[in-house]
Design goal:
The complex is a heterodimer of chains A (about 130) and B (about 110). Helices cover about 80% and strands about 0% of the residues of chain A. Chain A has about 130 residues and is mainly alpha-helical. The longest helix of chain A has about 30 residues, at about 20-50. Chain A is elongated. Chain B is an all-alpha fold. Chain B has one domain: Fumarate reductase/succinate dehydrogenase, transmembrane subunit (3 helical TM bundles of succinate and fumarate reductases, Up-down Bundle). Chain B is built from four helices and no strands. In chain B, helix 1 packs across helix 3 (about 50-80) and helix 3 (about 50-80) runs antiparallel to helix 4. Chain B has helices at about 5-35, 40-50, 50-80, 80-110. Classes of the chains: A mainly alpha (about 130), B mainly alpha (about 110). The interface of A and B includes residues 49, 51, 53, 87 and 93 of A.
């Protein structure tokens, strides 16, 4: 009982240190939740595009509208980050890149490469 | 919540689904980047082939299972009040099942068009 009260609590977001691994990790979580929320919309687009010629053109128009392009970039960035960070976790599972310097480098690489890859994918897909 | 997706089973499920999702997403992206179907007919015919239909459905179900394990962890972290937690988890599960049925319906219909 008493020990629970004596535990230090550091919830001030401006005082919590966030090393690159933690930043990469929280983006992995945020992109996961964001893509979960995107699932019904993506199924809607798939359904619309497959049902008829008219629906296919509507789906194309949605994706090519300004808001559609921004959302597509968000999805491609999110997918890139989540996938790259996921591959990093799988490699760490099999003891590749576990040491602190390597883990920090790979976390930085994932965080920096993902938006660039997201931009390239968006450009390539449009 | 569920003994079928907790502990080691959830850990394995998350990784097995991740590998399938990653590989199929890569396939989808490569086709859309370098050999995108140019018309509605080509797009529809691609999804109407039996192998692509099943592979896409497995992709959707794998995403929903993967999302369930991930979102459940997030909810357990942030929703501490038990009735609220059960309610949110139930709504997420219901939403995921609805998505799976919606996608199946769409992929079955395209083979009948």
């Amino acid at each position: 009982m008493n020990t629970a009260q004596q535990r230090p609590v550091h919830l001030n977001l401006f005082k919590i240190r966030l090393p690159i691994g933690a930043i990469m990790s929280i983006i992995h979580r945020i992109t996961g939740v964001a893509m979960f929320l995107a699932v019904p919309f993506l199924i809607y687009l798939m359904d619309l595009s497959l049902i008829s010629e008219q629906g296919y053109q509507q789906a194309r128009a949605i994706v090519h509208a300004p808001l559609g392009i921004v959302l597509l970039f968000g999805l491609m960035w999110g997918l890139s980050h989540h996938l790259l960070a996921g591959i990093r976790y799988l490699l760490i599972d099999i003891d590749v890149g576990v040491e602190k310097p390597q883990a920090r480098h790979s976390a930085l690489a994932v965080t920096v490469v993902a938006p660039v890859l997201g931009l390239l994918l968006t450009w390539g897909l449009l | 919540m569920s003994r079928k997706a907790s502990g080691l089973k959830a850990w394995v499920l998350q990784r097995a689904t991740a590998i399938y999702i990653g590989l199929f997403a890569l396939y989808l992206l490569l086709v859309m980047l370098f050999a995108a179907p140019a018309s509605y007919a080509a797009w529809r015919d691609w999804f109407a082939t039996p192998l692509m239909g099943i592979a896409t459905l497995v992709f959707v179900v794998a995403i929903l299972m993967h999302a369930w394990v991930g979102i459940r962890d997030v909810i357990i972290d942030y929703v501490w009040n038990t009735p609220a937690r059960v309610t949110v988890l139930s709504l997420v599960a219901l939403g995921l099942v609805a998505c799976a049925l919606w996608a199946s319906q769409s992929l079955i219909l395209v083979r009948l068009v």
